[in-house]
Amino acid sequence: MIETHDLSKTFGDFLAVNGVTIHVKAGEVLALLGPNGAGKTTTIRMLTAILHPTRGWAKVAGYDVLLQPDKVRARVGVLTEQHGLYGRMPADEYLDFYGELYNLEPAFRRKRIAGLLEQFGLGGAAHKRIAEFSKGMRQKLALARTLLHEPPVLLLDEPTSAMDPESARLVRDAIHQLRSEERSIIVCTHNLSEAEELADQIAIIRRGEIIALGTAQTLKQQLLGPPEFELRLGKALNGHLPTLPASVEITARGDTWLRYRTSRPEKDNPALLWQLLSHKMPVFSLQETGGTLEEVYLRAVNAPEEAPHAG
Amino acid sequence: MLADLQQELRPALTITRREIRDQFRDWRIIAPIIVLTIFFPGLMNFTARQAVNFVAKYGANIVGDRLIPFLLMVVGFFPISISLVIALESFVGEKERRSIEPLLSTPLKDWQLYLGKLLASMAPPLVASYLGTFVYLIGVYFQVGWQPPPTLLAQILTLVVVQTVVMVSGAVVVSTQTTSARAANLLASFIIIPMALLIQAESVVMFWAQYSALWWIILGQLLLAAVLIRMGIAYFNREELLGRELDVIDVRAAGRTFWRYFRGEAHSFGDWYLHEVPRALRRLRLPTLLMVGILGAALLIGAGQASRFPIPPDKLQREDLQQGTIEGVPIFPIATPGGVVAIWWHNLRTLSLATLGGIFSFGVLGVLVVMLPMLIIGYFLATVGTAGYSPLLFFSIFVLPHGIFEIPAMILAGAAILQLGATLLTPSTGRSLGEAWLSALADWAVVMLAVVMPLLLAAAVMEVYVTPRAVLWFFAL
Fold first, then answer.
1. Model confidence pLDDT, tens digit, residues B319-355
2. How far apart are CA A196 and CA B165, in angstroms?
3. What is the mean pLDDT of residues B58-64?
4. In this structure, are residues B230 and B424 in contact, taking their beta carbons and an 8 Å threshold?
5. Which residues contact B104 (CB under 8 A, 6 or more apart)?
6. One domain, residues A177 and A81
7. Is A108's Cβ below 8 Å from some Cβ in B?
8. Distance from CA of A45 to the nearest CA of B (A)
């Protein structure tokens, strides 16, 4: 549903996006992470057929952004970083205006607007001027605008920024729901736990170039090595370690705890637990430690560059 | 067909409707419009009545007769001046508040957005202007019994529309090159100052009562509006609107861009001369052809003027022109290196002024300057023809020796100036306006340095050492 190859954009002699290649299938969410000015917004603008790629190509909802921009724009819902709302307009009038631009039938438009305002808890504020809305309400209204024409592709720039935890949960639930409706979604966010929760794939972009791409698990393995686990026991080991599989490497230990790394936790963890339990050793807890997406992100963006990127 | 057109126009009108509704929610726009629609015409009625009564006491009724139509024009113009403010707010304000990006993400076509905003910026001020005019006419009819001649009324009403289009389309061009209302307001002086000068010229016309001149002013502004709309459509596009994030002038970056285009792919001076100069000339192929046509037309126009402004044939007899006349002619020292430098410098200075004029007039003034010598040559060719001499002989002796270098130089310089000016009107895919203009400037510099200046030097040498001898030879015949 979203496919790019070597997508690049230069402004004068500044290389803003360099060789981005991604593939987001229907029902998949890709989180695009990166520092400010890394090229996320430019990438989104190219996928919306607002900016022309300087090199490479992109297909969105089956249409080429360069050759069929109108068709692309009709099938994409974009939540921009700045909401761009009209303060003097009431919320329902604002959505109606966009509904007209998307050529939605009046009856469908009215029903859809009412439904979306209700879904995002803005039903009571439908006739209120947008200038009177809180930041979170504006964000939700902008999201409602994005979903108005039921686009198969969604490009969401910071969808939960400025929202209270309850509203953020509402929006995340909406994204889960949209994914289950087989839509392709790209989410640009600085909220890493949100990215980990929502995304099937994570792409880290730095100076216009994707430097890491994969599932959260894959990226952790690639950048941080095998995951680390901590085992806490009900009584002291007294120097008696169970026989450990060869793939397990102990990183630290105490009387009643043990930390280890393994590249095959799905096999080694059950085997280790079985051994401990068979020696009547009570197990309090077994959990993964460290290896957060934040560590992955920092490792990736702070890694030395292989070659200069600026053109 | 009509249904298709309606379908195409529908999104533009949706934009217009929203913008107008939004304007009516803003008291800062509504208040001046109301004042200029209702109170200002009333004030002008009062002024007209007082002035008419006052001048009548001294028998200067003509002043009153001229003042009433003049005030009609003023009443029509004041409300439309608001259109400039609305247009700047509509285009740049939207960019500044970032509300343009969601709009650009919809299937709207660039021209639909442009047209929608253009209409929204024009409609309320125009309605206010017409209402104000109506209020003024009613008042002036009941107070002094004056009714406008239908032609004058049509002229004023048309003038108001055309001036609105010029201001709004100018504001769009300004808006595409700025990202903040502050910067746009600064640049708006490029619209306000010429418009103020134009209003002064119109005032003179109104007091002079040469109302037919208003049609020429209308025509001129229509042409200008067409040029500005062309420019607006060329640069009011998604890439240009969102690709530009800063208003800061980066002289170093501009210098680098210019140098990149100037140098091209050359690695040495020889390489540049052999490859980049021909490339620049090839890029100027179309404007060069155009210049050949324009200079040919100038020659014919000049020849056409010979019958309108004839020199008496007896003043052109060779015997009368000999000796004293010829000796008095030289402006530049003849047959000296100083003369070469003087002529070369004069031509370079003329071309520099033509370039400057061309930059600020989309190439028009530059081309006019280059046309002047051809107009004069055409005039003299026709004049000597009527005096019984061979125009071909005259051309071969008086023009050809140095013209063989100077005319191609003028054609190429004119082409480079034309391209430089026309770049502002032409969309350049994948390049910003600034980059396209710098590339045209680089082409101009390449052609001037590598071709025009050497040709003009050669022409100056010929003009100082060869042409005078040929002329003297001609008179000695």
1. 665 555 555 555 556 678 888 999 999 999 999 999 9
2. 53
3. 84
4. no
5. A48, A50, B113, B238, B241, B242
6. yes
7. no
8. 8
Name the percent of chain A lying above pLDDT 70: 97
Q: Which residues on chain B are in Cβ contact (under 8 Å) with A60?
A: none
What is the 3-class SS of chain B, one letter each residue? CHHHHHHHHHHHHHHHHHHHHHHCCCHHHHHHHHHHHHHHHHHHHHHHHHHHHHHHHCCCHHHHHHHHHHHHHHHHHHHHHHHHHHHHHHHHHHHHCCCHHHHHCCCCCHHHHHHHHHHHHHHHHHHHHHHHHHHHHHHHHHHHCCCCCHHHHHHHHHHHHHHHHHHHHHHHHHHHCCCCHHHHHHHCHHHHHHHHHHHHHHHHHHHHCCCHHHHHHHHHHHHHHHHHHHHHHHHCCHHHHHHCCCCCCCHHHHHHHHHHHHHCCCCCHHHHHHHHHHHHHHHCHHHHHHHHHHHHHHHHHHHHHHHHCCCCHHHHCHHHHCCHHHHHCCCCCCCCHHHHHHHHHHHHHHHHHHHHHHHCCCCHHHHHHHHHHHHHHHHHHHHHHHCCCCHHHHHHHHHHHHHHHHHHHHHHHHHHHHHHHHHHHCCCCCCCHHHHHHHHHHHHHHHHHHHHHHHHHHHHHHHHHCHHHHHHHHHHC
Domain boundary among A203, A220, A237: A220
Q: Is the pLDDT of residue A311 over 70?
A: no
| Number of domains chain A contains | 2
Same domain, A33 and A106: yes
From A73, A85, A89, residue closest to B106, measured CB to CB? A73
Shortest Cα distance, chain B CAs vs residue A12, angstroms = 8
Whether residues A264 and A122 share a domain: the answer is no
For residue B273 the two structure tokens come to 């001369």
A129/A267 same-domain check: no
What number is the average pLDDT over the span B453-457? 96
Q: Which of A220, A238, A269 is a domain's end point?
A: A220
Report yes or no: B467 and B334 within 8 Å, Cβ to Cβ.
no
Looking at residue B401, its pLDDT comes to 92
A 215-274 residues with CB below 8 A of B?
none
